[in-house]
Design a protein that fits this description.
Number of strands: 0
Distance between the termini: 54 Å
Radius of gyration: 19 Å
Strand content: under 5%
Order of helices and strands: HHHHHHHHHHH
Number of helices: 11
Length: 205
């Protein structure tokens, strides 16, 4: 049976599982974020996550179930604080929403805490539907559609997606492919150049 198909362990946990606590669960999630970030979804296994966390594979299944469930839990928990703060993007006048969105997205990439799960998503979403679905749910449903709801322009959702595509492209070149001079440019300079383009996608007639 593959990791992806492994069922969630049910029933009373073993003594080893019973002795494990929140610290062990957190260690598994941290190891999972690192593994998915470095290897992508397809090349990451529950066994590899367990080894990195210093636990038995059965304990990973006991806490999270399948590899898909580990992935979703790991990235969603890491993103929770950032998404909770995303309301700041929606607040304020529409004529500066492009700058707020640009700062918010690049701020997630600049923060090492949120960069790791984001790397895991982006590297995996290209060729894996599970990762792509997580990306759509976290980014599209919880942020982009709310911004689109505020725009009094035709094709609001398309405009927001084009703005997102601009920012994802910048992030890919700066943080993943690391193309110079973009990779080492001051983030304020990047915001200064990119924000007007994002603003144009969102509000220009």
């Amino acid at each position: 049976m593959t990791d992806a198909a492994a069922p969630r362990r049910r029933g009373r946990p073993s003594r080893t599982q019973s002795e494990a606590g929140p610290a062990t669960r957190d260690r598994i999630l941290e190891a999972a974020r690192e593994e998915f970030s470095e290897r992508g979804y397809e090349k990451t296994s529950v066994r590899g996550i367990a080894k990195a966390a210093g636990v038995d594979s059965a304990l990973v299944h006991h806490y999270f179930g399948t590899k898909e469930q580990v992935f979703e839990t790991a990235v969603e928990l890491a993103f929770a604080p950032a998404l909770a703060a995303s309301g700041a993007v929606e607040d304020g006048p529409l004529d500066t929403v492009g700058e707020r969105l640009t700062r918010f997205v690049l701020g997630i990439w600049e923060n090492p805490t949120t960069r790791t799960p984001l790397l895991a998503i982006v590297r995996s979403a290209v060729n894996n539907e599970t990762a792509a679905a997580v990306f759509r749910r976290l980014v599209a449903a919880q942020l982009l559609r709310r911004i689109a709801g505020r725009l009094d322009v035709p094709d609001a959702e398309l405009r927001v997606e084009l703005a997102a595509a601009q920012l994802v492209g910048v992030a890919m070149l700066r943080y993943i492919i690391k193309v110079e001079p973009l990779a080492s440019a001051d983030v304020e300079r990047v915001v200064e150049r990119v924000a007007p383009v994002v603003q144009g996608h969102l509000t220009t007639p």
